[in-house]
UniProtKB/TrEMBL annotation:
The lineage of its organism: Bacteria, Pseudomonadati, Deferribacterota, Deferribacteres, Deferribacterales. Keywords: Hydrolase. GO terms for molecular function: glycerophosphodiester phosphodiesterase activity. It comes from the Bacteria. It comes from Deferribacter desulfuricans (strain DSM 14783 / JCM 11476 / NBRC 101012 / SSM1). It holds the Pfam family GDPD. This is Glycerophosphoryl diester phosphodiesterase.
Length: 251
């Protein structure tokens, strides 16, 4: 692990600059690079399995196109999601979240982004029960405020962040900062995950520090920019090139 830098380095969808995103290959490579944590995206299948994939369908990364919520895992697990990236990754499959948890060291933080709605919460509940000895390393987060609000209500001891992108899920207006802070407080969330927009982050830094919130920023592949976020007080930074960022910050 890299321990010289106060800001944790999180591999965004694994080491996704070098290997196909959200696959075992990408996560295993990130572990070799010495990251502090892994970030992954999850959806719920038709048969209530939590799968690791970014999009709501397999078309972009798979050789066949299926909607996740309308497909059983027995169908999805047969799809090659590696060869689109490079032929040497042909045969990489869509993993279950459990597959990833079981295959990586338990000292890693796991940033689990929920890409669907509240329908996944029952499956998350079962997951938390199964891995109750590791949940202190789980950080759940989502753009969907209803999801994070309900998840924190169900599991007050689990770390939960709200993902905020001004102009996407929050209006791009200075007055909205206060509304964002109020929502985080009212749901008793543990912090915030923000787009790597330096202007917005500079404006938010003081308030985030005041509340001692966890603060994740995504996605940064530029070492100079990473250092600026570290100096702002960002607690974890998601990157596609964790080796590059770690080497430069430790230099």
């Amino acid at each position: 692990m890299h321990s010289e830098v106060p800001m944790k380095i999180i591999a965004h969808r694994g080491a996704s600059f070098y290997a196909p995103e959200n696959t075992k290959a990408a996560f295993n490579l990130a572990v070799q690079f010495g990251v502090d944590g892994l970030e992954m995206d999850v959806h719920l299948t038709k048969d209530n399995q939590i799968v690791v994939i970014h999009d709501e369908s397999t078309g972009r990364t798979g050789v066949k196109n299926f909607r996740i919520k309308r497909s059983k895992y027995s169908t999805l697990k047969k799809i090659d999601v590696g060869s689109w990236f490079d032929q040497k990754y042909k045969g990489e499959k869509i993993p279950l979240l459990e597959n990833i948890i079981d295959s990586v060291p338990d000292y890693l933080d796991l940033y689990i982004e929920i890409k669907c709605g509240t329908e996944i919460l029952n499956a998350i509940s079962l997951l938390i029960d199964k891995y109750n000895n590791r949940v202190d390393r789980f950080i759940f987060f989502s753009f969907n405020y209803e999801v994070v609000e309900n998840l924190k209500k169900l599991f007050p001891n689990i770390k939960v962040l709200w993902i905020v992108e001004y102009g996407y899920n929050v209006p791009n207006h200075p007055k909205m900062y206060k509304d964002v802070y109020k929502k985080i407080e009212s749901a008793n969330l543990d912090g915030i995950s923000t787009l790597a927009d330096l202007t917005h982050c500079i404006r938010m830094a003081k308030e985030i520090k005041k509340h001692n919130w966890m603060w994740n920023v995504w996605t940064v592949d530029n070492p100079h920019l990473a250092k600026q976020f570290m100096n702002l007080g960002v607690t974890s930074l998601s990157t596609n090139r964790p080796d590059w960022i770690i080497n430069h910050l430790n230099a």
